[in-house]
Amino acid sequence: MYKVAIIGASGYTGAQLVQLVQQHPSLTLAGTYVSENSADAGKNIGALHGNLAHVDATLTPISNEILVALTSQVDFIFLATPHEASHDWMPTLSSGRAKVLDLSGAFRLKDTAVFEQFYGFAHTQKNSLDVSVYGLAEWHEDKIANASVIAVPGCYPTASLTALKPLAENGLLDANVRPVINAVSGVSGAGRKASLTTSFFEVSLHAYGVLGHRHTPEIEAYLGTPVIFTPHLGNFKRGILATITVKLAPNVSQSQLDAVYQDAYNGKPIVRLRDSFPKIDDVAHTPFVDLHWKLDEASGYAVVTAAIDNVMKGAASQAIQCLNIMTKQPVETGLVL
Amino acid sequence: MYKVAIIGASGYTGAQLVQLVQQHPSLTLAGTYVSENSADAGKNIGALHGNLAHVDATLTPISNEILVALTSQVDFIFLATPHEASHDWMPTLSSGRAKVLDLSGAFRLKDTAVFEQFYGFAHTQKNSLDVSVYGLAEWHEDKIANASVIAVPGCYPTASLTALKPLAENGLLDANVRPVINAVSGVSGAGRKASLTTSFFEVSLHAYGVLGHRHTPEIEAYLGTPVIFTPHLGNFKRGILATITVKLAPNVSQSQLDAVYQDAYNGKPIVRLRDSFPKIDDVAHTPFVDLHWKLDEASGYAVVTAAIDNVMKGAASQAIQCLNIMTKQPVETGLVL
Amino acid sequence: MYKVAIIGASGYTGAQLVQLVQQHPSLTLAGTYVSENSADAGKNIGALHGNLAHVDATLTPISNEILVALTSQVDFIFLATPHEASHDWMPTLSSGRAKVLDLSGAFRLKDTAVFEQFYGFAHTQKNSLDVSVYGLAEWHEDKIANASVIAVPGCYPTASLTALKPLAENGLLDANVRPVINAVSGVSGAGRKASLTTSFFEVSLHAYGVLGHRHTPEIEAYLGTPVIFTPHLGNFKRGILATITVKLAPNVSQSQLDAVYQDAYNGKPIVRLRDSFPKIDDVAHTPFVDLHWKLDEASGYAVVTAAIDNVMKGAASQAIQCLNIMTKQPVETGLVL
Amino acid sequence: MYKVAIIGASGYTGAQLVQLVQQHPSLTLAGTYVSENSADAGKNIGALHGNLAHVDATLTPISNEILVALTSQVDFIFLATPHEASHDWMPTLSSGRAKVLDLSGAFRLKDTAVFEQFYGFAHTQKNSLDVSVYGLAEWHEDKIANASVIAVPGCYPTASLTALKPLAENGLLDANVRPVINAVSGVSGAGRKASLTTSFFEVSLHAYGVLGHRHTPEIEAYLGTPVIFTPHLGNFKRGILATITVKLAPNVSQSQLDAVYQDAYNGKPIVRLRDSFPKIDDVAHTPFVDLHWKLDEASGYAVVTAAIDNVMKGAASQAIQCLNIMTKQPVETGLVL
């Protein structure tokens, strides 16, 4: 059994991690932490997340002493923390035997100038950034297996890259026309906090972060080509549907396209190649990415849609996939029951 | 044309009043006000409420000078303000020719001890309280017609009293068994503010204010008998459905019950006696109260359900009904188009 | 007062038309009709649509005699009927003094080969098709004013064309990159009928009609350039949000783009140029189209979003706009109150 | 490992059973069946229920031969079938070594006159009815352990009885005032089928089955006292919230009430006694019943709310609980992970 600590357990991703660790056959929950001044310190996690009312896990305020102690006391540390906290704590947390899985955006972008532009503060943890591995589980398995610091991908990039990488890696994209990614996320993507924007009455489908969202450079960095990415807030709790329109290189056929996806995801149980365009609820509360695609051979345009649960494959369950890879277990262990 | 000012125009009720005043054939909007320190001061109302993007109405910060000026400059003042503000300002606002329609709870309970228990502060405006009239439009028409201060009823009491008063006024209730009122409200009932409770992810049907909600004494005061009232928060934006279970006096028949409702609401166009149990969406965005009922003659228990839009009949459109009565216009003027 | 008949009044569009005719100052409802064998024949419309419970309008089964009679008895006939019915009845209905506003797709496509491909039956009403005018109210005002048969545009084309025509008409689109239209529609778009697809439990955001929806040729015909259009079903009742990504011609600036939209919609009260990306609920239950756009000058890509209520501007209220134009009334009469 | 067959696997309850059997450590899925003429025959279950897209389970049309064969080939047969089918097939199905868990209403009411009144057909399987055991897992454990036929309780009765039995069994209910049960169910309760009533646009909170729902006699039979039960349809997919108002016997205190619930559910891991009134989403996708209560000592009225997932504790997971009891495993095996 591996010992696991979760820092930032009060949020939606943290609570999901608690649930996944509970149901995982080789993980044991060693501690759940919240920020030092959190109003939730001392509460049981079930007081915040009613679905976990049967779970015995106290939210302990984090401290520098605890950060240091965890590096030798546990095997894995999950950070479901603000970007700044992950950034500042990483050198300490990664200094011992514990491996760190960071679900914030602090270590996803290797280019610190781009990072500063999109995250609003300078990146000063160059060493941690150098060793961190981008945890896109289906594509970076070898590197993940040997990493000590994992930057778990963002929710939109996970959906977008799973759909687009088979095309990019096989040279199927027309170089002159950018892929257009339209994605709709459930409200959990905004995190657990009081805000007028995510107030029930105010939520209604709309675009945001247009032509400037911080997941754009993340997608571009790991795809290797520029894209147009437009996120939307939808009136549902969990899930992302990404609808991606691409112009393909000349003369690609539907059967070639099919083969590319089948090759890419053969033996990858978390990616489900579907017979029809997936719904959000097909993947809600699951670890899966569902993909379906269609090509208009006459024009060379294709549409691919990818559905994920943003709290699961877009965050918590992808972190567990990485842990499974790091511990040489089947990638779906504790996820597909 | 009557001149109207709306104080507290930034909230859901205030915005609804703006829309209703705009569409009313004999009302003109003289001013829209927000609290002195509101972050919304100076904005156009459409910046807060996208549905009003075409309306030209600036949110002006209220001040004591404006309060005084309004009493002579306009004919009607709507207060969609916190209880405390309505309480404190009423003597000033009701000192001139303007009539005041208060949508807060400040002047609904005549018993100041009960008021203090449920609202948390002492009522010190005895004179205003004495002259205020409870604006339950279908039941207090004569008093409303001559009032200078209207306490517009709460949303839950409006639904509950419309359903129960025909029974109580006709002596049909069993005196030994309390009416049980279960009501579910849309999230707009909680007002426009950032709050974890009304955050989209957190909203899911549940009871609140059990055996202690401040609308209980309001219902009891205007019904004349104690009730058990259990409010719930539902996952929708607008509307209240109140399901009311009563034990009737011995030997009441279904046809007697039908007659009592028909008599009570004959000539009352805002109350619709339906052929089946109404849905929330039958009344959302409308001024109507929809009623339907059924009696089990064997046991003497009956179930009545009442559906309203809490922002409309539960607040704004009932205030307009009162104004229509005060100006001798048909009660549905500007409401049923 | 103009006399109006509505054929197909039992559906969502028909019921919306009834409500709009009721509130229009110069229209009177002369009759509401359903198909000859409809199970709803003889019912009051309020029995089907609870929001209209106060309306006195019986659903009369249509017959050939009635069709003929209507052409001389009323001024305007609204067809909220299946494509086949509109197609078959049009010669009869348009043979008298009554003008016809058809909300089906029967007369939108002038190219009968394309029509047959996308609608599945041959178009045999060449004369009616020749005289019919596409009722995109903000763009075809002159033709609408003199038309006897209006093909009211589809919901998706209305949103898409309102967003794209200012760009196309001003030559701002890059000719080598197709506009990408992603749109999400509420469930009312599927019509009022029992279907597993639109059953509450089954509805969850997903793409459909990918690279083959019949609104694609409609958009292309009235835009004058090919597009990639991907519709989605969303988990809400009313509204469409279209998110449109375009590559602009070289060197277009944000201020040029702004000017183009302002010029296009100056004096058009139904189109609201917004300061931020609109939400579905900003336009639900309203006749408006809300537009907002943003350009990335570096890449030349721009994103425009358009929000409409599919039952209103996407169907019923646009039909009323056309009627207002045909009767020389301000276009927003009876719509913006 | 126990072999399990599921008849009626195409519906929501059937699909949930498939998922629960998959994740159960001591169950193996031997077959999934649909009705003989089902349009879904031959499909994989994932084609109907996208969340199960990774599951390999073909929907086989049932036949008399299969019914007979199953009785010797499997250990447990789950019937997620219409009442009539369960009624007709039970003698055959229960004639071998297989034990039968029936999720229909066919064997819940021992009084065949009442059964006929509420189910609309005569009960002719007297022997099966005599041996069947009502599978309310927390209350009938001993009988369930030795049963060969389980009548899995209805969804509303499960929520209602879990809340009320501690009061009734301890003589705390006032005999002269009926408990009032108001419950709201998600749309999955209506089953997987095309219907205008459960069409997305039509669903909006309303009461139905008032003073005549077939779950009323089921609740009364197993509670031992008459109740007033009013079900509602809510605009969500899964879950039931039952809000129950009772008048207690004289002089019951809050601490007595607390003790009664704690005693009743001590050592019952599926019932969670909560610190606050539960939300639907606290239990959605879980096997739990969440309870909370409050007493007004002055009046003697108390309010109890019970939340369950109707597809889980209201159907599938309660059936698994029964199976766990029948196989001497901890009741939460395969349910609480």
From TrEMBL, chains A, B, C, D:
Keyword list, A-Z: Amino-acid biosynthesis, Arginine biosynthesis, Cytoplasm, NADP, Oxidoreductase
Record-level GO BP terms: L-arginine biosynthetic process
One Gene Ontology cellular component annotation held by this UniProt entry: cytoplasm
Semialdehyde dehydrogenase NAD-binding domain location: 3-147
Entry GO MF terms: N-acetyl-gamma-glutamyl-phosphate reductase activity; NAD binding; NADP+ binding
Annotated compartments: Cytoplasm
Protein's UniProt keywords contain Secreted: no
Chemical reaction(s) catalysed: N-acetyl-L-glutamate 5-semialdehyde + phosphate + NADP(+) = N-acetyl-L-glutamyl 5-phosphate + NADPH + H(+)
Protein role: Catalyzes the NADPH-dependent reduction of N-acetyl-5-glutamyl phosphate to yield N-acetyl-L-glutamate 5-semialdehyde.
Protein name: N-acetyl-gamma-glutamyl-phosphate reductase
Organism the protein comes from: Alteromonas australica
Recorded name of the encoding gene: argC
